[in-house]
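Model: Ready when you are.
Researcher: Fold this.
Model:
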Amino acid sequence: MNRSSSDSDELYGLVRKVLRLSRRFGQTLDEPLESSLGLNIKELLVLSAIMDGAATPSAVAEAHSLPAPTVTRIVTKLVEAGLVQRVTDPSDLRRQRLELTPEGAQTRSRTRQVGKQIVEKQFGHLDSAQIRAALEALSALEEALFAAPSPLPKAAPKLEARL
């Protein structure tokens, strides 16, 4: 599709605004969630991924595009907090599966309640039509993002591979 320069500028501005809003949403939610639940957003994302069936650290990392060392550190914290347990895979003793403990499941459901309260306080003044319009616009962006091939160039080969 050929766009005018003005349309391209607006589209670029839209994407920049979404990125800024994403960071701002994180800031708005992070502190109240951490003070209420003792966990930050990344930790809650990991907890959520495990609840949704991501049974290994690599699956969690992939589900939320997080670096593996970050997931390992967060999983260790969640295990120490009693929210997640590592279970050795009986068919391959080298592998460990991640499972929520009952306390982890309770924390996950409390997260939803606290999150809804924060969102209502921050955005409760928006009317239904505004919310639906925003959802439709963001859904269209999401669909386009996942339908398009990745615009990122492949990484340059490592030096050793070129020698």
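Researcher: Now this one.
Model:
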Amino acid sequence: MESVNLESTSYKAGAILNIQVCYALPNVQTLVYLQLPVGTVLYDAILASKISSIHPQIHLAQQRVGVFGQARSLYSVLENGDRVEIYRPLIVDPKLARSLVVQKRRTKRVIFYRSL
């Protein structure tokens, strides 16, 4: 578990963090703005956002989370201005998806032959 360095966060009595919690589906993005106390961890921010009531398919035990595209532990301490992201599980392995795209492009090529 990470600890909070109160000197680096310019801690003041009653200090708050402005945090966003984000979950995106292919056709909709949900963004919840929160003000939470200094020392809050990702897990607490996600619970406070109540985003799982909007998207019941979220299962934190199975999904990865992060801040600004960088994977983090559920118990990472947040900083002011952080955007907590809940990542959807991959449907297709990225390497397999890329090879399927390349294969599809190869089959679409038309080759013209000149007869002499």
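Researcher: Key takeaway?
Model: The helical segments are 42-49, 51-54, 94-108.
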